[in-house]
UniProtKB/TrEMBL annotation, chains A, B:
Localisation per UniProt entry: Endoplasmic reticulum membrane
Region listing for Disordered, in residue ranges: 67-97
Name the UniProt record assigns to this protein: Transmembrane prolyl 4-hydroxylase
Subunit structure comment from the entry: Homodimer.
Species annotation: Eleutherodactylus coqui
Record has Oxidoreductase as a keyword: yes
EC number: 1.14.11.29
Keywords: Calcium, Dioxygenase, Endoplasmic reticulum, Glycoprotein, Iron, Membrane, Metal-binding, Oxidoreductase, Repeat, Signal-anchor, Transmembrane, Transmembrane helix, Vitamin C
Residues annotated as transmembrane: 32-57
């Protein structure tokens, strides 16, 4: 076989002669040069082909490799890697949202948030996927944030209910039987107290407790047999105006509300103070979410709970149905919907001080085997009540200055994007029994509708490129301008 | 600055002249050829550099990109992707073990196990990560496996205890106070029945129930006050020989054992029947684990439970400590250890028939919030007992012909490899009350010590390349040759 290639080279003069011949005459010159050029051309082509093949294979190009036939390692091990790359690469870098691994409760991992400094991160629960990172902020940074918030001024997170609701209720065109049916969760023809409690909107911002309900029943003589249960007959006999009159006349204090705290918002975008910028960068590193997703999220919320303050257990974001709009992407899509929620994929909560008494963050049903609203809210004990029942929840986090906790309010959709609301993410702020509690919240907004989120990011990038005047009209921070005065 | 390079080219003749000159005389010839060669050399070098850069960047080489400085999307979004690639790529394709996402209990996803056919996969629990895939096997395949197993012949999975144990126990040089201390789990100075039950080895293959313990106490008069609790004083007064005599004289049937079933092993490697090969290929696609990991795992175990058969709740694999050896990698590492386990990362269980009565697979503590051995084993109810308490477990899977269920016996270590044992993976086979139950098990063996697993795979690949004679000595299947007769 070698004979086919050999004759040519055997006709050539020995190497030394050829090299010498290159300087010699015309015919030798052209032949030598031809050989040199040809060698270069071939080496060049071979190298390009080899590199192209390398690029092809290292980028997962063997999509059609048949894995069913042979048991060899190299070909059959690859498909999953390729699938993974493909999944991540579809539609650019921000179309895949990485999710941290919790492994198991108590699992500790090291993370690098700033160069050359390692932080510990501990898994606190898997449902929701919840982590704790001590010393995320320095004492100085915590104090700076409190100071900045105080300079800016805080406002009540919730105000006392107004009368509008009463009139609205009175004008409601809905029969008593229908109201009864809506409230009768288990459809047993009886209204248990816990069924009334689950409809927290009935309180119109007031937090309703089993005692409240019993007092109200007594005041309007709703439950003559006093068994705490309303039958349809008892309900029909009621005069709803009596209810409203009772609610209207009852004195309401801040402690009776769902939330008793004050808060303000701190801008973190370009041009913000270095501490605020740096926190945002650390949040990007912590969550591993695309930077532009984090950069286009809500500003930092700083919250103060005075002694006696609380926030009953709640979800930071709502369930998502096809017709639900997200507050942040609504800016660019111009869609309006009866259902709107804040689409907060991730909550990062920072403790800015050590609280003298109380003020823990509670996750009453974290890691429960199943989610049952009705086991959460009993006739006598409502686990969502953070003024009374924080001690009965599954998980409580004690505030420690500088510590960050973060969790996912939504599950994955199994395709690298936001899926269903994680009901186990229910959480609240326990009663502050002594001293003041300062925290800050960073919410990372992602629209579960991927196309809308990508469009939103694209538009935001486009406006950021335009001049600063037009940009100002469009940043998410600016949508908070009614509650936000630049410092 | 351009002037420095320009003069030379301005001295050159116009392009047409030069091209014409190439065919002309001696001096022109050598100069033209020189130009051509130089152009090729430069183009070649530039192309190689460009391709190398492309390879570098597309493989995630920008490790040192500074993400802390700017808010732009393109640079800051990328690190996680790069990290992901890096993680997967370290040490070749089999050094990263993908893990499926469970999302939440009840979550359904479509998977393609054979070309152009989709299967449904449902998440049954997150702790352990457990999935169910109906119609994984066809009815024909199920019947084939049963037929093959019958042809080959099955043997008892566990045999009745022998006397050796009795003598071994009698020769044990350990004081009664030390035995008491070992058994006294909560160190309260009293032996509760559940504390005796947790030490299942005391039974030497016999399954011990609270009733057994009470009968035994009564027979040897161990518990004069009859409160079911032994104090150290009561324990010291005992004659251990009485215990052994009692245990030795008691009639033991198969139903008293931990496991009452028969099984055999079916070879699935190269040259095996197409049905067995095809099942292995589907398992590779299902688990997305590297093919060579699956190919070098245990053969298929086919198990028959007759009416009255059971398998009390157990773990398919043991905990792993640094000194623990894996049965499969021991073949190549030649390490021996007092601790050895089968290192079954994944269990794939196939139901081969519909069982007339009973025979469910139970996961008594699946998705429990916490794992507490002592809440699993009570003084009166031992949730591991699949003859009596299957109805009280968290999760029960009814056998349906062709359905596969699979779960991870180990957690992830957070770095794409096998981590700690998942204690929630405890499972058993409920009592078959009527008819026969046929199942098959595929275990995927992975050494939690990554270096040992990679060495094992490398050695297996090397031996597979050698001639068939030497290969036969080394396949894992062959390590089962004492219990395996080729069909």
């Amino acid at each position: 076989m070698e004979a086919a290639g050999a004759p040519e080279s055997s006709e050539e003069p020995p190497v030394r002669d050829r090299l010498a011949g290159m300087q010699k005459g015309n015919s030798v010159c052209s032949r030598s040069y031809f050989v040199v050029v040809m060698v270069f051309v071939h080496v060049y082509i071979l190298n390009v082909i080899a590199l192209l093949l390398y690029v092809y294979y290292s980028n997962g190009g063997q999509n059609d490799a048949d894995t069913a036939g042979g048991p060899t390692a190299a070909t059959t091990a690859a498909p999953e890697h390729r699938a993974h790359h493909r999944q991540e690469d579809t539609g650019g870098p921000h179309s895949y949202l990485p999710r941290l691994e919790g492994i198991k409760v108590g699992y500790k991992q090291k993370i690098e948030l700033v160069n050359n400094k390692m932080h510990d991160m501990k898994t606190l629960s898997l449902k929701p996927l919840l982590f704790e990172i001590p010393n995320f902020l320095s004492e100085k940074e915590c104090k700076f944030l409190i100071h900045l918030a105080q300079l800016k001024g805080l406002q009540a997170s919730q105000i006392l209910p107004v009368d509008g609701y009463k009139e609205a209720m009175e004008n409601l065109e809905i029969s008593k039987a229908d109201i009864f049916n809506l409230l009768d969760h288990n459809q047993d023809g009886q209204l248990q107290i816990k069924e009334v409690l689950t409809h927290s909107r009935l309180g119109n911002g007031r937090w309703m407790t089993p005692e409240n309900i019993r007092e109200m029943y007594a005041a309007v003589k709703a439950d003559p047999d006093g068994n705490g249960v309303l039958s349809l007959e008892e309900f029909k006999k009621l005069n709803l105006r009596d209810f409203h009159r009772y609610l209207g006349n009852r004195e309401v204090t801040m402690n009776d509300l769902v939330r008793n705290s004050q808060h303000t918002w701190l801008y973190q975008g370009e041009g913000a103070h270095q501490v605020l910028r740096s926190i945002r960068q650390r949040v990007i590193k912590l969550t591993r979410l695309p930077a532009e997703v984090v950069e286009n999220s809500e500003p930092l919320q700083v919250v103060r709970y005075d002694s006696g303050g609380h926030y009953h257990a709640h979800m930071d974001s709502g369930p998502v149905f096809p017709e639900t709009a997200c507050a942040h992407t609504k800016l660019t899509t111009n869609e309006s919907s009866a259902f709107e929620t804040s689409c907060r994929y991730v909550t990062v909560l920072f403790y800015l001080n050590n609280v003298t008494g109380g003020g823990e963050t509670t996750f009453p049903i974290a890691d429960n085997r199943t989610y049952e609203e009705m086991s959460l809210i009993q006739n006598d004990i409502d686990l969502r009540d953070t003024r009374k029942h924080c001690d009965k929840g599954n998980l409580r986090i004690k505030p420690r200055q500088g510590t960050a906790v973060f969790w996912y309010n939504y599950l994955s959709n199994g395709k690298g994007w936001v899926g269903d609301l994680d009901e186990f993410a229910l959480h609240g702020g326990c009663l502050v029994t002594e001293g003041t509690k300062w925290i800050a919240n960073n919410w990372i907004n992602v629209d579960p509708n991927k196309a809308r989120q990508l469009w939103f990011l694209q538009e935001m990038a486009r406006y950021a490129k335009d001049d600063h005047e037009s940009q100002k009209e469009w940043t998410v921070d600016k949508s908070y301008k009614d509650i936000h005065v630049d410092l």
